UniProtKB/TrEMBL annotation:
One of its GO terms (biological process) is protein ubiquitination. Pathway: Protein modification; protein ubiquitination. This is RING-type E3 ubiquitin transferase. It is found in: Cytoplasm. The keyword Zinc-finger applies. ANK repeats lie at residues 421-453, 454-486, 487-519, 590-614, 624-656. GO terms for cellular component: early endosome; plasma membrane; ubiquitin ligase complex.
Length: 767
């Protein structure tokens, strides 16, 4: 039976629970109880409900009935909201707030009984923390009568009956004399029933999810506005359930907190609170355990540890990497992941680029280093150790106590390099930018190149803390400028990854090696290019170093020019070409040049620089014999196609499968206009048509169809269909022949020979 028919007969406003097990569902109850029940499941139970005659209220358990089975909390409340009509405090179920009057709220009963101005629009709140849903005014809307277990209804014992013969025996009817709540636990969840022998008792019609009664003679219970109720199975959206990058959370999501300790501490106020131990989990991957009623996120990090986080403090972690093993005709993909195969929609996946993942890994590690250091500093400042403790010097430096540090160095000079929380006093002073303390420690013969547990020296700490002046002091004191840590990163790598321009400048001025690779074979310039246009100043500084090696290649086989073209970093492309134009046509192992990468990733400005300033070969081929034009067409980068054609890209060049760029366009799974007006300043496809007249297929088709010159539109159709207005006859499946026509030319479509290579792949190609 349809949902409307069910509501007409059984809905009561303000219900607090819905029990599907006994075939009882109410949209109001469902919304109040916040159950995410699919409509298919609900409707299945609705049919049983109507057939059995069970009402829509779910019963309650009175005290005189003895002990009850355990049940969960039913219903929701708006604890600080008062109905401005009936004056009930703490609205149950949905809240209805007037959008015209200041601070005016109604409960469900008053709203459905036409209290307040009918011409005023209202907002509906399904829970105290859900987003409001704006509704139209009630004036003129259809009100539907409610019938079910209301006062006066005739009932018999129901599916959860456990009260013996209080009703006089099975099948004996009673009459409902009242509907009310059970103490303060639930509202409108129990019914008082008078039986034939005159006895009256209270029975559950929703309390703790139990239904003691079945309706055999419904009673009227007022009215409701169907259009103003929430949809069954679509729970309200919470106000605070999104991550730092704007993505909603769900149970099982992998998340990380990447904030500094001080920022997280402030954000946690009112969102689960702050515990110093939470800092230990910054940068670690956890799993979303649940979403709280307030919209905060409960995250589990191991079997014992769970913390509640402000949702804005979390970022979704990357998913697993898989391999596409099959592409289905409808565009879905078969992907092998961790030994299993799954079918995905393409919209659920993103291309995995190893070089990007490597750069992300390095950047994430830098964030984690800073987070762990912040934790260590907090612990140092909180220490109450003996002044004679060997690590006390590190504590005083962390607190910035120059006098106490000097006193300790005079009394215990041998403790100058003693570690506390894994760091020396010089490393802590360098990170905090305490120049005077750094000079004091250097005078006390502190180990300037002494590494921490991860291989970081004081210079690494100066870079991590964005302290260029400390860096200069350390370099002038003779520290190793190119010392590497456990990830083979120098201080210059660290400064570039953090985006600290002045530190980079100071290191370059003192002769740091700009060509040293890290663990991924990325030079500092590779890292600066990965950082995007925000690091343009760093790119300029690095490319001005006289001895920079612009031919350096990382572990993915990308030269600096390849990498800049991949990322769309036009400034880096210009700087590299100015120093080594001979690299413009250099190929990776797969045959990709810088122009291939720019075309594939739709970097039009970069492609323009490579063509005009680098004078690259626009017809260069990769190992699959694809030209940059093939790749631009394959990805539907319409802004790049005119640029490449104008530059002299051959429209007749064939890849290893014998396909030209036009063949690639015809294989796209959509209705693709080949001739239309241009947009965004790019030459339009109509102009493109005039530039590819040398293509035999295009030229012959345009002449024979009579289209093209008069501005008519041509299309590629990838499904077999009658030619209809495009001509007579049927275009057979399998590419046996293909036709040319136009919207303004409804005459017979001339048939042309199938181009080489089409018959094996294209289902039905018509343009």
């Amino acid at each position: 039976m349809c949902e409307t028919a069910f509501i007409n007969r059984f809905l009561q406003p303000g219900l607090l629970a819905a029990r599907l097990v006994c075939c009882v569902v109410s949209p109001v109850a469902l919304a109040s109880n916040r159950k995410s029940v699919t409509q298919e499941v609900a409707i299945k139970h609705l049919g049983c409900c109507l057939k059995a005659g069970v009402c829509s209220e779910v019963p309650s358990s009175p005290a005189q009935h003895g002990p009850r089975p355990p049940g969960g909390r039913a219903g929701v409340r708006h604890p600080n909201i008062i109905c401005d009509c009936c004056k009930k405090h703490g609205l149950r179920g949905m809240r209805w707030k007037c959008r015209v009057c200041l601070d005016y709220d109604l409960c469900t009963q008053c709203y459905m009984h036409n209290k307040h101005e009918l011409a005023h629009a209202f907002d509906r709140y399904e829970t105290a923390h859900s987003r409001p849903v704006t509704l139209s005014p009630r004036q003129g809307l259809l009100r539907i009568p409610l019938r079910g277990i209301f006062q006066g209804a005739k009932v018999v014992r129901g599916p959860d009956w456990e009260w013996g013969s209080q009703d006089g025996g099975e099948g004996k009817p009673g009459r409902v004399v009242d509907i009310r709540g059970w103490d303060v636990e639930t509202g409108r969840s129990v019914a008082s029933v008078t039986w034939a022998d005159g006895t009256t008792n209270v029975y559950r019609v929703g309390h703790k999810g139990k239904v003691d009664l079945k309706c055999v003679g419904e009673a009227a219970g007022g009215f409701y506005y169907k259009d103003h109720l929430p949809r069954l199975g679509k729970p309200a959206e919470l106000q605070r359930r999104v991550s730092a990058d704007g993505q909603p959370f769900q149970h099982g999501d992998k998340v990380k907190c990447l904030l500094d300790t001080d920022v997280l501490r402030e954000m946690q106020e009112g969102h689960g609170g702050w515990n110093p131990r939470m800092a230990e989990f910054i940068g670690q991957t956890g799993t979303v355990h649940r979403i709280t009623d307030r919209g905060d996120v409960r995250v589990q990090f191991n079997h014992e540890t769970r913390w509640t986080f402000h949702p804005g403090a979390l970022t979704k972690a990357l998913g697993r990497v898989g391999k596409v093993v099959k592409v289905f005709g409808d565009g879905n993909l078969r992907v092998a992941v961790a030994g299993q195969r799954w079918t995905f929609s393409p919209s659920c996946l993103v291309a995995y680029r190893p070089e990007e993942d490597a750069n992300l890994d390095v950047a994430e590690r830098a964030r984690e280093n800073k987070s762990s250091l912040s934790v260590a500093l907090d612990k140092l400042r909180a220490q109450k150790s003996d002044p004679e403790h060997p690590g006390r010097l590190v504590v005083e430096v962390a607190l910035g106590n120059m006098a106490r540090a000097l006193d300790l160095l005079r009394r215990r000079p041998e403790q100058v390099d003693t570690k506390n929380q894994g760091r020396t006093a010089l490393q802590v002073a360098a990170y905090l930018g305490q120049v005077d303390l750094v000079r004091l420690l250097l005078q006390a013969r502190a180990g300037v190149d002494l590494p921490d547990d991860e291989g970081n020296t004081a210079l690494h700490y100066a870079a991590l803390g964005n302290q260029p002046e400390v860096g200069r002091v350390l370099l002038n004191a003779g520290c190793r400028a190119d010392a590497i840590n456990s990830t083979q990163s120098t201080a210059l790598h660290v400064a570039v990854q953090r985006g600290f321009l002045e530190v980079v400048r100071a290191l370059c001025e003192h002769g740091c090696d700009v060509n040293l690779p890290d663990a991924h074979s990325d030079t500092p310039l590779h890292a600066a290019i990965s950082a995007g246009t925000g690091a343009s100043g760093i790119v300029e500084v690095l490319t001005e170093v006289p001895n920079i090696d612009v031919t350096a290649t990382n572990s993915q086989g990308f030269t600096l020019l390849h990498h800049a073209s991949l990322k769309g970093h036009s400034l880096a492309v210009r700087k590299i070409l100015a120093r080594a134009r001979q690299l413009v046509d250099a190929k990776k192992e797969d045959g990709f040049t810088a122009l291939h990468l720019a075309a594939l990733n739709n970097h039009r400005e970069v492609a323009q620089i490579l063509i005009r300033e680098g004078r690259c070969d626009v017809n260069v081929r990769n190992r699959k014999l694809q030209s940059p034009l093939h790749l631009a067409v394959q990805q539907a980068h319409v802004g790049l196609v005119p640029l490449l054609v104008d530059a002299g890209c051959s429209v007749n060049a064939e890849d290893e499968e014998g396909d030209t760029a036009l063949h690639v366009a015809l294989q796209r799974h959509q209705l693709l206009p080949l001739v239309a007006d241009g947009a965004g300043g790019d030459p339009g496809p109509l102009q493109l048509m005039s530039r590819v007249r040398k293509c035999p297929v295009m030229a012959q088709g345009a002449r024979r169809s009579g289209g093209g010159a008069d501005g008519t539109k041509f299309y590629v159709i990838l499904q077999p269909a009658p030619l209809g207005s495009l001509g007579e006859g049927w275009c057979p499946w399998g590419g046996e022949r293909w036709g040319l026509g136009s919207q303004s030319s409804p005459s017979r479509v001339p048939l042309l020979p199938v181009p080489p290579g089409f018959r094996k792949r294209c289902p039905c190609l018509l343009f």
